[in-house]
Amino acid sequence: MARALTELRLPVGFAGLEPPATWPRPRSAPRPEALEAGVETLPRVGPAVRGRLAKLGLRTVRDLLWHRPRRYERPIEEKAIRDLFGEVEAVIEGVVLDTTSRRSRGRLKILTARVSDGTGEIKATWFNQPWLEAQLVPGTKVRLRGKPNRYGFQVETYDLGETTETADYAPVYPASEALAQKQLRALVGAALEQVRAEGDALPASLATSERLPLRADALVALHRPRSPDEAERGRRRLAFDELLVLQLALARRAAERGRLVAESLPDAGALLTRYREVLPFRLTEAQDRAIAEIDRDLARTTPMQRLLQGDVGSGKTVVALYALLRAVEADRQGAMMAPTEVLAEQHFLTIEGICAELGVRVALLTSALTAKEHANVRQLIASGDVQIAVGTHALIQKEVGFRDLAVAVVDEQHRFGVEQRSALAEGRSPHVLHMTATPIPRTLALTVYGDLSVSEITAPPANRKAIVTAWVTDDRSSEAYERLTRHLRDGRQAYVVCPLIEASELTVARAADDEAERLRRAELKEFRVGCLHGRLKPPERRSIMADFKAGEIDVLVATTVIEVGVDVPNATIMIVQEADRFGLAQLHQLRGRVGRGAQQSYCLLVSGPKEELTDVAHDRLEAMVQTSDGFELAERDLEIRGEGQLLGARQSGLSDLHFTRLRQDTALLERARDVARSLADEGELAVAVERILGGSEHIGDS
Ligand code: ADP
Ligand code: MG
């Protein structure tokens, strides 16, 4: 009987008696996973375009959706052809009558189309877009944005169908030479069709009370605004989301850390007294203060999570070594981790001598070692024979088992992912000191490092003289080299930084070699010139660095590999070639290689003629001349660029921020912080939190 009844039931999903086990998803439901699809799933994206997009950091559909326009085109008036005058930018709409094409003497391909709109006729011209001719068949409707001139109408952008390119407030994206703005706009347009897949992590009540648009609407507004206001409202919504997620991530991290236990270290004793004696200088007040803060952390049973922030050359390494020696004194181990092999080697060179004097056993662990050496060093670390190990993050994170790691120093690492999981499993965590020279204004440090305590080295050692920075154009570069040779004759050393070229590492290396060779024959004939770049085998690199340090090389011609960590106080002058190509943070880091001793140091920035530079490059070089204070430069960089990307790829959690304008969003940031306190870290928000915490590596992972 019962069976018959069941059979009589209506199909589930309609007005049946029993609900289905799982409801089918409505077609409009968010599918955030769809946005993980690679860009090649979009129409007309083959391997070549995919490669060019990857160069801009755009790999998935989501990346395209999140590619924030740099600015928007100005709105301009649509005019009848009859009413065009002067050279005033305008939009016209009409029909193609016919086309012709030719080549100019400058080998420019010029395509001309006669266009009529009923009020008149004009010759529209395009340069170097020969393929377009096939599309501009007579009768085609076109919408053109450009400028009338004496020959006709020079086209800047055009639409053959829907109005996008020529629209008011068309988005202008950070693009590249290989990827035209038009193509990028089209691709973002294709990605926008999937915008509803994004989902909306904010509880609706919150969106309402904060007066924020829906997330998908915000993305549409960002890419297709009808007014600047609309674009800005969209951007703010997106910025709010990411700040909120960042705050939740910080809170989660802080809570996780709160549960960890570390062993407290006994007070500093004889080893550290000797350390102070062995140092060829007295610690500065700022260094002593940082050390006192570290001492206090190490006495506790919650693991230290401290950020040591200080400008380039301010003397962080000495403080870091102090922390490592605290571990050694307690008969435990220390680890020093750097983001690159070069930097790890630098750190090793710096601390090796002092450690030898103190009788502390240090080892460098990099992939430059043979497999056998590598295994041997790992074994010594595992047995505790090595008391301080220096290496890259990856090595120490992935392969190495310490006998008893007590203190880890992490230099310039991405914000998240600094736990040692294996230690966690044993219920014991190392004390961690993070170091950064990236100048982050204080207010931002609070956001991005919200879960760390911060020590700041505010002033450089007192014996320092401010570096003199000069900006010269290349017609006067011989004077720069004259000054450089004067330093060399006085027994000082120097750097010449090669132009930043956007090419493969191999081309960059060749260019550096060529430049070194050229200088050996010309300006620097009488001196010993070494060349350092990323393509050198590690042993070669190490021996060049060691020679430079020992004064056996006078001039180091180098690529930006010397940007961080190189410490040769006798080097007192640096020439940066084509300095206008470098970012401000990068120039500042480079300059930090000189001015490390008591001697007056110089940094000479060479650029092309001033009138040929972009405004931004001009402002950057001016800022470099005016101040050598990293924090001030960071602020300037924000002003010059109007946004918070100053901190570059190597950056902390700031690299997770796509939409935030750090300077102008302070209020938004505080809102996000308040809201984060009252929100549960669950559902889609939790997924977003995972996304930024997720990609990180963990010390001790295997
Ligand atoms: P950072 O890592 O902050 O860039 P370093 O720790 O490498 O700076 O220090 C830069 C230079 O200053 C090094 O040559 C170092 O030996 C020297 N130095 C550090 N502390 C002092 C001090 N208190 N007095 C004089 N020189 C110092
Ligand atoms: Mg350093």
Main attributes of the structure:
single chain, 38% helix, 702 residues, binds magnesium ion, alpha/beta, binds adenosine-5'-diphosphate, 23 helices, six-stranded parallel beta sheet, disordered N terminus
Provide structural commentary.
The protein is α/β, with parallel strands linked by helices and 702 residues long. 38% of the residues lie in helices and 17% in strands. The strands form four sheets. A seven-stranded parallel beta sheet has the order 10-11-9-12-13-8-14, sandwiched between helices. The protein has a six-stranded parallel beta sheet with strand order 15-20-19-16-18-17, with helices on both faces. β2 and β3 form a beta hairpin. The longest helix is centred in the middle third of the chain and has 31 residues, at 228-258. The structure holds adenosine-5'-diphosphate (ADP) and magnesium ion. Magnesium ion binds next to α10.
Taking the alpha carbons of the first and last residues, their distance comes to 60 Å
Strand content: 15-25%
- Tell me the helix content: 25-40%
Tally of individual helices: 23
How many strands, which pairing sense, and closed or not: the largest β-sheet?
7 strands, parallel
Give me the secondary-structure category: alpha/beta
Average pLDDT:
84
- Ions and ligands: adenosine-5'-diphosphate, magnesium ion
Given the C-alpha coordinates, what overall shape results? globular
Computed Rg: 30 Å
Low-confidence stretches: 1-16, 415-425, 642-653, 695-702
Going across the biggest sheet, name each strand in turn.
Answer: 10-11-9-12-13-8-14
Count all strands and give the number.
20
